[in-house]
Design brief:
Rossmann fold; six-stranded mixed beta sheet; alpha/beta; 24 strands; four-stranded mixed beta sheet; 569 residues; globular
Length: 569
């Protein structure tokens, strides 16, 4: 029988670090976001199941119950069934929360599943775990079975065959992967007990794992896929209330251990399968993104003529211990592919970029790197090249100007480059640069302070977390010590801040400034006017009145006490 058990995505958090006995660096608490889906009831033409909802509840209960060095269930705390449960955990120093979206049978509609994803995307940070579990039908489509269809709850009175998926609501695996990639989670566990499990795993690898060798080898993400080798079963001979793989997981200890002790966890699964094997051959299949990235790294090293599997940092010169440099990466595109019809050329991105680069270099002593009118591949390579040059003491300011696009199909934003194709000719948007992917790359920079400024349409979709950054413009701050010590103290915390010129469409120029966009004009004014130091909050006080409604947010591993301060020289 073809049934789908699920997907689990989990993220590991930062721990508290005490600064030399002076103060405690405040970091984000570890939260766990769970989407658990179980569907037993399907139309008459489908086979119905008995354990999907039960398995979804059991896996959810295990996640809530398992204890780790970072999270434990305090005595007296209990979990309840139902949608939207909230159970409080504590670690040794900070409160953590578990947010559960449990959708069973008729609650598990496509819209409810998408809404749950959007809530997780809005609320989660890179310190969090994310768990997605689905139990129900799945099957493969396409000439080579290259896509997987997941079937949530649909109208029980529908008179359709399972293969007539165009007649009922469904979710494609690629769409699911798109949602996952927008969740700030490094460690992701994907569990599937459905249909042809190994084919599902291969399709998910293609949709979820980074296929670009250069990006993959610089990514901090790690996903583990745990599925069946062939068809999944609805129950096991050892336990009629659970499917076999679910039973193995429930009896193999903390499933989050798969990230820290991959082979040990695999050994535990093997022991459970020996105890309760349903056939003579192996039932489950496990793979991880780390191994996939190693393969890509070898291909990358072979193509570049280098030895070894990882890129090395290339420093122009040795830096003094503790030295901090500010790098400004300026990306601008105003000329687009003549063979496409979706994007017109722009007037001002290079004007804006050059003016901002000049100010940052002359007034703020920034080291400038420019990427103008380049294809997607060169933009990515330029970002990753700079990443390899930077240390944790350095700061990065990234400014991007050009066209942006938001895809309703993928629920995320994209940057348009010189080689981007007409939208109708590129339905998978392979020629566009995903803002979610850019977000992940920037969060993985070694530098503690990263400030991203986007003057593109739909720039706010770079970070869909709904928690706007508290605005600190230092207007009432009296600095008792010298400015260098003040900035040095702030620099001890991680800062990941983004400023977008608007949530939707933004303008290339306006009547009061033909040389710059409305947003860039105010941004330049902010950089020019400040006398001691600049910060995102100070900049926002200049641009917040812009007609496009700029947005200031945190992203990634940003800490409560983090900020991005640049001194005027």
């Amino acid at each position: 029988m073809k049934r789908f058990l699920g997907i689990v995505i989990i993220f590991l958090a930062t721990v508290f670090i005490v600064d030399a006995g002076v103060k405690v660096r405040q970091v984000n608490p570890v939260n766990v976001h769970v989407i658990a889906i179980g569907v037993d009831q399907y139309p008459k033409a489908f086979n119905s199941f008995v354990n999907c909802a039960n398995d979804a509840s059991a896996i959810t209960g295990k996640i809530l119950k398992d204890k780790t060095p970072r999270i434990y269930l305090p005595s007296g705390s209990t979990s309840t069934r139902g949608k939207g449960n909230r159970v409080v955990f504590k670690d040794s120093l900070e409160k953590s929360n578990v947010y559960v979206h449990k959708l069973l049978n008729e609650e598990a509609t496509v819209q409810n599943i998408k809404n749950a994803f959007k809530e997780v995307i809005k609320k989660s940070t890179s310190n969090d775990y994310f768990v997605f579990f689905f139990a129900g039908y799945s099957f493969e489509i396409g000439p080579s079975a290259e896509e997987t269809i997941l079937i949530p709850f649909i109208d029980l009175d529908l008179d359709v065959k399972i293969t007539e998926y165009d007649k009922y609501n469904h979710i494609k695996l690629k769409e699911l992967a798109s949602f996952m990639n927008q969740i700030a989670a490094k460690n992701q566990l994907i569990i599937s007990e459905a249909g042809q499990g190994k084919i599902f795993a291969e399709n998910l690898q293609a949709a979820l794992f980074e296929s670009d060798a250069e990006i993959a080898t610089n990514s901090e993400r790690n996903r583990v896929i745990l599925t069946t080798v062939d068809n999944g079963y609805d129950w096991s001979k050892c336990d009629k209330s659970h499917a076999p793989l679910t039973k193995y997981i429930l009896d193999s200890g903390n499933m989050l251990d798969v990230f820290e002790n991959y082979y040990d966890y695999e050994y535990r699964l093997n022991k459970q399968e020996v105890k309760c094997s349903i056939r003579d051959t192996r039932y489950y299949f496990i793979s991880r993104e780390v191994d996939y990235k190693k393969i890509l790294a070898r291909h990358l090293s072979n193509s570049s003529g280098t030895r070894g599997s990882q890129s090395r940092k290339v420093k122009p010169k040795e830096k003094e211990k503790g030295q901090s440099d500010t790098y400004a990466l300026i990306i601008a595109t105003n000329v687009y592919n003549d063979d496409q019809t979706s994007w017109n050329d722009l007037k001002n991105p290079l004007n804006d970029a050059n003016s901002i680069a000049t100010i940052l270099e002359q007034k703020y002593n920034a080291k400038i790197h420019k990427i103008y009118n380049e294809p997607k591949r060169e933009i990515i390579s330029g970002i990753l090249k700079l990443k390899r040059q930077m240390d944790d003491n350095d700061k990065l300011l990234l400014f991007i100007a050009g066209h942006g696009h938001f895809s309703e199909d993928y629920s995320q934003g994209f940057l348009v480059s010189t080689d981007s194709q007409t939208l109708e000719d590129d339905p998978t948007l392979e020629s566009y640069f995903s803002m979610a992917k850019l977000n992940s790359i920037l969060d993985g920079f070694p530098s503690k302070q990263v400030f991203t400024v986007l003057d593109v349409c739909y720039g706010a979709s770079f970070e869909l977390n709904n928690a706007d950054l508290p605005i600190e413009n230092y207007s009432n701050t009296e600095i008792d010590n010298n400015l260098d010590d003040f900035i040095s103290d702030v620099d001890k915390s991680y800062a990941r801040i983004m400023l977008a010129s608007g949530q939707y469409e933004v303008f290339d120029y306006w009547k009061d400034s033909q040389k710059h966009s409305p947003f860039a004009s105010k941004l330049i004014k902010a950089f020019n006017n400040e006398k001691e130091f600049i910060s995102p909050g100070k900049i926002f006080s200049y641009v917040r009145g812009n007609t496009t409604t700029p947005i200031l947010k945190k992203f990634g591993k940003h800490e409560v006490t983090g900020d991005f301060l640049l001194k005027v020289y």
